[in-house]
Design a protein that fits this description.
The protein is an alpha/beta fold. It folds into 2 domains: 31-141 and 261-291, Rossmann fold (3-Layer(aba) Sandwich); 145-260 and 294-321, 3-Layer(aba) Sandwich (Rossmann fold), CATH 3.40.50.2300. The chain is built from 13 helices and 12 strands. Strands 7-6-8-9-10-11-12 form a 7-stranded mixed beta sheet, with helices on both faces. Helix 2 crosses helix 11 (262-277), helix 3 crosses helix 4 and helix 5 (145-156) packs across helix 6 (174-185). The longest helix has 26 residues, at 3-28. It starts with a helix and ends with a strand. The model is unreliable at 2-28 (pLDDT under 50).
């Protein structure tokens, strides 16, 4: 047999041996397509999405992510969810109550992983332990967080007697009620101001200024996160110290934040995603809660407001931005 014939026979034999392996690789190595739906803007979500990606990379996952953001316009979320449905995604990650409700309505069979404040109160799941249906995820709401915000403000600003609470009416009401109760229990008068769209937020700060408040508490809302530059600028213009749940407000120039470490939340969400992509059912995965919280203080903003932060507060900060 000639050398050319021998080479041809060997090539054919190797091809036949490799064929089953290639077929198996194609079946098991398909790259999952994950949809992301949020009411915030892409810029406010970038670090969280990267934490989610990193969590999946640590588990050897490659994936394609299709992203849809409403930029603070929750009324656009149902249409964006429909767009993701047409892309035949394998899994949906929703952020915020409005996005989660939209995802739940559109996706009846595709698993939905949420990060939202109060999934039970928002009627997204039946219970934390047994979410049921095709949804599970991470619940951010902590009943004690409102009291912590008030405590930090009282300690950092001992002279305040009245606080404003900026609340997005499209978000869950439970947090607003919790913060009001915490403030009253510590002898503070409260002024609840409603803000959702840009002109409402402007009006809310004008109302707070006329109401003689000493500080503002900005409640959780994906819509308000998308307006963070405007909110921080208004707080500075009216010389109002403000406390936020998310650190990206403080990174944008806000005074102080205390809340869940959201990057850790999204890394943990990647564990859920990996388990679901391996065949686990969302109904069998109890809703998780944050385990890490962080206090961030912007000293440059404090100085601009003429504030001196007590050492007892500074020593507890996870990060001080100079």
């Amino acid at each position: 047999m000639s050398r050319r014939a021998v080479a041809l026979v060997l090539t054919l034999a190797l091809s036949l041996l490799a064929a089953p392996l290639i077929a198996e690789a194609r079946q098991t190595g398909q790259v999952p397509r994950i949809g992301v739906l949020a009411a915030a803007s892409p810029s406010s979500y970038a670090s969280l999405l990267e934490a989610f990606r990193q969590g999946l990379r640590e588990r050897g996952r490659s994936l394609v992510i299709e992203q849809r953001y409403s930029g603070g316009r929750p009324e656009h979320l149902p249409g964006l969810a429909e767009e993701l449905a047409r892309l035949n995604v394998d899994l949906i990650v929703s952020s915020g109550s409005a996005a989660t409700r939209a995802a739940k309505r559109v996706f009846a069979r595709v698993p939905v992983l949420f990060v939202t404040e109060d999934p039970v109160g928002e009627s997204v799941v039946a219970s934390m332990a047994r979410p049921g249906g095709n949804v599970t995820g991470m619940a951010l709401m902590n009943p004690a967080i409102g009291a912590k915000w008030v405590e930090l403000l009282r300690e950092a600003l001992p002279a305040i007697r009245r606080v404003a609470i900026l609340w997005d009416p499209t978000a869950n009401r439970a947090q607003q009620q919790s913060v009001e109760a915490a403030a009253r229990s510590r002898g503070l008068a409260t002024l609840t101001i409603i803000g959702h769209q840009a002109h409402e937020i402007h009006a809310a700060f004008e109302t707070a200024k006329k109401g003689g408040v000493g500080a503002v508490l900005i409640l959780s809302s994906a819509t308000l996160v998308s307006q963070r530059q405007r909110i921080v600028a208004l707080a500075a213009r009216h010389r109002m110290p403000a406390i936020y749940e998310r650190r990206d407000f403080v990174e944008a120039g806000g005074f102080m934040s205390y809340g869940p470490d959201l990057r850790d939340v999204f890394r943990r969400l990647a564990v859920y995603a990996d388990r679901i992509l391996k065949g686990a059912k969302p109904a069998d995965l109890p809703v998780g809660q944050p385990t890490k919280f962080e206090l961030v203080i912007n000293m440059k903003t404090a100085k601009a407001l003429g504030l001196t932060i007590p050492p007892s507060v500074l020593v507890r900060a996870d990060q001080v931005i100079e």
